[in-house]
Amino acid sequence: MKVICDRAALLEAIGLVSSVAASRTPKPQLTCVRLTATKDGGAGELTLSATDAEISLTLRLGSVDVSEPGETLVPAQKLSQIISAEDNDPTLTITSDGDLTTIKGSDAEFKLHGYPSSDFPPIPDFQQSIASGSRGAFTLPAGSLSTVVARTIFAAARENSRYAINGVLFKKAGKRLELVATDGRRLAQCGANLPAAGAGDEPVACIVPAKALGVLQKLIADDNEPINVAVTDNQIVFGFGEDTSDLRAVLSSNLVEGAFPPYEDVIPKDQDIRVGFDRDVLFSAVRRAALLTNEESRGVRMAFTADDKKLQLSSRSPEMGEARVEVDLVSYEGGDIEIGFNPGFINEALKVIDDPQVIIELKATNKPGLLRSGPDFVYVVMPVNLQ
């Protein structure tokens, strides 16, 4: 194999693909990226692939000068470090001879020992996934998928023994897609309408690992690009591009086993206090009140008063001091209430909201709060005890 690549484009591609490669594994081939150079007429292409045996990514890089088509398997981390270090070169030449890969710049040469490309495990192809028996397939714009992922993934559990909540519930019925995530202390739900042409009829429900959705977010470059989604019995596959036979990237992931909790039961239906906020004002107030919290006193007290439509946020830390912030409310329905929340939980939700106004619904000091933004986003957060 011999190719000449644009260094900046190659660096971006290897950064994305290497994030999927395994970091620790008894199978060293899983720490590698497979480079496949092909040539069709005068156009050359370099395909980069990596997998950790659970998540796989294939990314195609066009506008590559391919002198000799071929394939090689190279340690992903070292290849990424070399390409990054060669920052004075606009292009790099990559050649392979057996298991030895050489990367040349204008004044440097690196030789990397790799593995036979035949040692690389097979990874899913989008069309093969559909042909092998997809439980459901549909298409939606990248921007829509990016929004619902961003508004839920932050609430997913991390390394929880209840393995099912370490992922995000991916639920599609008719022309509606809904994602739900929870860590047991808060729950985020966000939906999006699917275009009629790409909705499909078969309902789908599966749990997708948070890591896979994190990689998905990095791959989105154009909000209008179609993303094709196929779900099989044990995998979900995302294909980026208009033509499923000529996709820019293919991301696949094993599904999380287990049953997602009955989240509908967690969402309160009888809140009788409804408060309207300017999103930026609330974000600033919560951030400032949180400055004097610590590990023992993580909560911020929120005291709502109906008569003057004000919110007073306060926090205390015995070794540091106290903070108090006052906020005017946009609207208020209901009686006075004091309640405590983890400030990080509130502001993580506010970060992913685009609407300038948000609604918080409350019931009682010991009942969960409900944050809404538009018709598609619901966020439930449990209160904390305040001394």
- How many helix segments? 7
Low-confidence stretches: none
Second-tier CATH architecture of the largest domain = Roll
What percent of residues adopt helix (DSSP H or I)?
10-25%
How much of the sequence lies in strands comes to: 35-45%
CA-based gyration radius: 25 Å
Average per-residue pLDDT, rounded, comes to: 93
Largest sheet report: 9 strands, antiparallel
Q: Gap between N and C termini, in Å? A: 68 Å
CATH superfamily of the largest domain, by name, is DNA Polymerase III, subunit A, domain 2
For the record, the count of structural domains works out to 3
CATH fold group of the largest domain? DNA Polymerase III, Chain A, domain 2
Question: Topology, please?
Answer:
Blueprint: E1 2-6, H1 7-18, E2 32-40, E3 43-51, E4 55-61, E5 65-68, E6 70-75, H2 76-85, E7 91-97, E8 100-104, E9 109-113, H3 126-131, E10 136-141, H4 142-153, E11 167-173, E12 176-182, E13 186-193, E14 204-209, H5 210-219, E15 226-231, E16 235-240, E17 249-254, E18 273-278, H6 279-289, E19 300-305, E20 310-317, E21 321-328, E22 331-333, E23 337-341, H7 343-351, E24 357-362, E25 369-373, E26 377-381
Antiparallel strand pairs: 1-5, 1-7, 2-3, 2-6, 3-4, 4-17, 7-8, 8-9, 10-15, 11-12, 11-14, 12-13, 13-26, 15-16, 16-17, 18-22, 18-24, 19-20, 19-23, 20-21, 24-25, 25-26
Notes on the protein architecture:
The chain has 387 residues and is an alpha+beta fold. It has 3 domains: 2-119, DNA Polymerase III, subunit A, domain 2 (DNA Polymerase III, Chain A, domain 2); 126-264, DNA Polymerase III, subunit A, domain 2 (DNA Polymerase III, Chain A, domain 2), CATH 3.10.150; 267-381, DNA Polymerase III, Chain A, domain 2, CATH 3.10.150. It has helices spanning 7-18, 76-85, 126-131, 142-153, 210-219, 279-289, 343-351; strands at 2-6, 32-40, 43-51, 55-61, 65-68, 70-75, 91-97, 100-104, 109-113, 136-141, 167-173, 176-182, 186-193, 204-209, 226-231, 235-240, 249-254, 273-278, 300-305, 310-317, 321-328, 331-333, 337-341, 357-362, 369-373, 377-381. The strands form 4 sheets. It has a 9-stranded antiparallel beta sheet with strand order 14-11-12-13-26-25-24-18-22. Strands 6-2-3-4-17-16-15-10 form an 8-stranded antiparallel beta sheet. The chain has a 5-stranded antiparallel beta sheet with strand order 5-1-7-8-9.
